[in-house]
Specification:
Length: 227
């Protein structure tokens, strides 16, 4: 006798704003890693010509700045969505799962193949929630340190306007050299997070069989009726 397959139902998981900011951040992180690596350790030399036109470092720095401000904008908008957007209520409700020890235990059992996936009130399980908290704290740090470095290169316009506001943070971090070091460490943390995030997304999509990865593209997840 054939085993009856579980019936899956469509459930709207992520809003268009959530998905848009997710992919903007993803693109910005890739560009920031590559361009930041060049700025720190030059791996490409420009063609030697007689005219002063191949400002390779300046070009890479420009790309880095554009991606950086894109990242800042996406983070600000995502923060707004998390606090005020009605469709983001499921994210806010995840706090209830985060502080529930029973959900923690059940989730760990699920990851080590010792139990079913726990029923969640929100969209994030406790491990996801704490990982995202770490990501956003780190993203705030890397944006803050990036702006401190920015004001020491561009003294007019926005750089000049932010100079007085950001100088105390530079002093608090122990000087410009320390700011740069913290900036690099924060990016290392984000790289580790991205690798773990992709792995866990694939893991949940394969083990859960509910279209978990599809949701970040279409917005819809397909949990079983039992779940």
């Amino acid at each position: 006798m054939e085993k009856q397959s579980k019936k899956h139902v469509a459930e709207y998981e992520f809003s268009i704003g959530f998905r848009l900011t997710h992919w903007i951040r993803a693109l910005a992180i890739v560009v920031l890693v590559v361009s930041g690596l060049y700025i720190a350790y030059v791996f490409q030399s420009s063609e030697v010509v007689g005219e002063p036109i191949n400002f390779m470092n300046a070009k890479w720095r420009f790309v880095h700045l554009v991606a950086g401000f894109l990242m800042i904008g996406a983070l600000i908008f995502k923060t707004y969505l998390f606090i005020f957007d009605s469709l983001s209520k499921k994210e806010r409700v995840s706090v209830a799962d985060f502080i529930n020890p029973k959900v923690w235990i059940a989730q760990i059992k699920y990851y080590i193949f010792m139990g079913p996936h726990p029923h969640l009130k929100g969209v994030y399980n406790p491990l996801q929630f704490i990982a995202y908290i770490l990501f956003y704290v780190t993203a705030f740090v890397i944006c803050l340190t990036g702006l401190v470095l920015y004001i020491h290169v561009y003294h007019d316009g926005l750089g000049g306007a932010l100079y007085g506001l950001l100088r105390p943070f530079e002093v608090w971090m122990g000087g410009l050299a320390n700011v740069r070091e913290i900036h690099h460490i924060a990016m290392d943390v984000i790289i580790v997070f991205v690798v773990a995030h992709v792995y866990m997304a694939v893991f949940n999509a394969i083990k859960g069989k509910d279209g978990a990865m599809d949701a970040i593209v279409s917005g819809y997840k397909f949990p079983s009726e039992e779940h």
